[in-house]
Amino acid sequence: MIRRAVAAVSADAADAADADADADAADAVHAATAAAAVAVAADAGEIVAIWNPVIRDTTITFTPDQKPVPEDAALIAGPDPVLVWDDGGMTPGFARYFQLRGGAGDRHTSEHTIPLVPVRRGRGGGRAAMTAQCDDAAAAGRHSLGVSAGNDAGVAFHSAVGLRTTDRLPEVGWKFGRWNDTVLMMKRLG
Fold first, then answer.
1. Beta-bridge mates of residue 117
2. Are 27 and 123 in contact (CB under 8 A)?
3. How many CB atoms lie within 10 A of CB 168?
4. What CATH number has the domain spanning 5-188?
5. What is the spatial distance between Cα 21 and Cα 108, in angstroms, rounded to a whole number?
6. Which residues on adjacent β-strands are paired with residue 173?
7. Which residues contact 71 (CB under 8 A, 6 or more apart)?
8. How far is 30 from 56, CA to CA, in rounded Å?
9. Residue 180 pLDDT > 50, yes or no?
10. In whole angstroms, what is the distance from residue 115 CA to residue 4 CA?
């Protein structure tokens, strides 16, 4: 499958990695040097296979409704880019950003998501995807990129990649029989 490359994220750590590097360090270097590409309809099945366990099992999103492949294929064909990267024939994650609200005045601010398969979390893939996504969003004229994080790991990750907390909305998301807070975080791109 031929895809338009969006960004190759270089890792200075690749030059410094020695032969005795552990598996996590090697995975981080590999993930950080992967090239992101714009998803195509044929990627919808892999994206849904990553997204649905996140929807089903976590508070990363408050929606309880898993995504069918045709719905995801329609999102891929839509105006907002979905970025993927290849890791030896599998897609370990995807990154998507979309307009924060529907009004014309909000068109320069986007919300985003970067779900990864569990075995790739904490190994550099999210950072690489975030860099590619920020670069792509800035090139598309977006002024800022935000997230509404509903979990501590998401808040820690986004803080580490340069988003700052702008607000906390208590008890706004209902999932797993309880109210969940949302932390709003933003990063200026230009």
1. none
2. yes
3. 12
4. 3.40.630.30
5. 41
6. 180
7. none
8. 29
9. yes
10. 21
Tokens 């996504």, located at residue:
133
Q: What is the pLDDT of residues 114-146, one digit of tens each?
A: 898 888 888 888 888 888 889 989 998 999 988
Q: Are 145 and 170 in contact (CB under 8 A)?
A: no
Classify residue 67 as exposed, middle or buried by CB count within 10 Å of its CB (0-12, 13-18, 19+): middle
Q: How far is CA 103 from CA 82, 100, 106, 148, 182, in A?
A: 21, 9, 5, 19, 22
The residue to which tokens 């990750």 are assigned = 157
Burial of 25 (0-12, 13-18, 19+ CB in 10 A): middle
Q: Give the integer Cα–Cα distance in Å for 115 and 46.
A: 12
Record the pTM.
0.75
Find how far residue 181's CA is from the centre of its chain: 20
What SS3 class is residue 66?
A: coil
Count the neighbouring beta carbons within 10 Å of the beta carbon of residue 178. 9
- Say which residue the tokens 């995504």 belong to: 67
